[in-house]
Amino acid sequence: MRKQFAVIGLGRFGSSVCKELYKLGHDVLAIDNNEEKINNMTEHSTHSVIASGTDENALHSLGIRNFDYVIVAIGDNIQSSILCTLILKELGVSNVWVKAQNYYHHRVLEKIGADRIVHPEQDMGIRIAQHLVSEKIVDYIELSDEYSIIEVIATEKVSNKSLDQLNVRAKFGCTILAIKRGKDINISPFPSEIIELNDILIVIGHKNDLKRFEEEGM
Q: Which of 66, 26, 64 has its CA nearest to residue 44?
């Protein structure tokens, strides 16, 4: 379903979010007080406007409260990020996602009502670390402090075996959500599905269980 997004702050993170949302077919309003950044985003957004994220009148005139999501991607100025988030919530924006710089920034954003707080550098650092410590892990998504999703390469140890034979849930407490084979992806595979060498298994579970599955099951 086509949604309406506004992205405030067009640094590397904001520009990346803006481009991807637009590429996925959604309506995207790009906002920044830097004319050059706005010009660079005209072909990657539905509309692009030179405005400050801390200008309440400007945001109100743009009809900001009517957007499904507003992403505050102001990276350099924590004070502006906080003030922008506060204004958006006071204007009645229902879903405000904000990029946080650090723990204290995060705490303040929580208190003023940010609906989702993201740490892109920290999240990417975790994913890179997971790649570095294991040659089997292709990708890693942290769901919470305890649970994650991993993409892991099927080794010879599990190839030519069915999911039923592997019995991953009983042995390791994890669940195989899908199997990727080349460009094809099998969502909710049957227990009789045979795993082939170099398939990508998408697995969800507790971090300790996933680690045990990666080390012992693969």
A: 26
For 107-117, the pLDDT digits (tens) are 999 999 999 99
Residues 153-208 have pLDDT tens digits of 999 999 999 999 999 999 999 999 999 998 888 988 899 999 999 999 999 989 88
Pairing of strands 137-142, 147-153: antiparallel
Handedness of CA 45, 48, 53, 57 (dihedral sign): negative
Identify any residues that bridge with 30 across adjacent strands, giving them in sequence order. 7, 48
Q: How far apart are CA 213 and CA 173, in angstroms?
A: 9
pTM over 0.70: no
What Cα–Cα distance (Å) separates residue 155 from each residue in 59, 95, 135, 137? 53, 42, 11, 11
pLDDT tens digit sequence for 84-97: 999 999 999 999 99
Q: How many CA atoms lie within 13 Å of 107's alpha carbon, on the beta-carbon side? A: 3
Q: At a CB cut-off of 8 Å and minimum separation 6, what does 183 contact? A: none
Residue 167 CA, chain-centre distance (Å), reads 30
From the number of C-beta atoms within 10 Å of its C-beta (0-12, 13-18, 19+), residue 45 rates as buried
Q: Tell me which residue has tokens 């706005």.
A: 38
Average pLDDT estimate for 56-71 = 96
**Cα 96–Cα 46–Cα 124 angle in degrees, nearest 5:** 50
The two structure tokens encoding residue 129: 């670390």
CA distance 119 to 121: 6
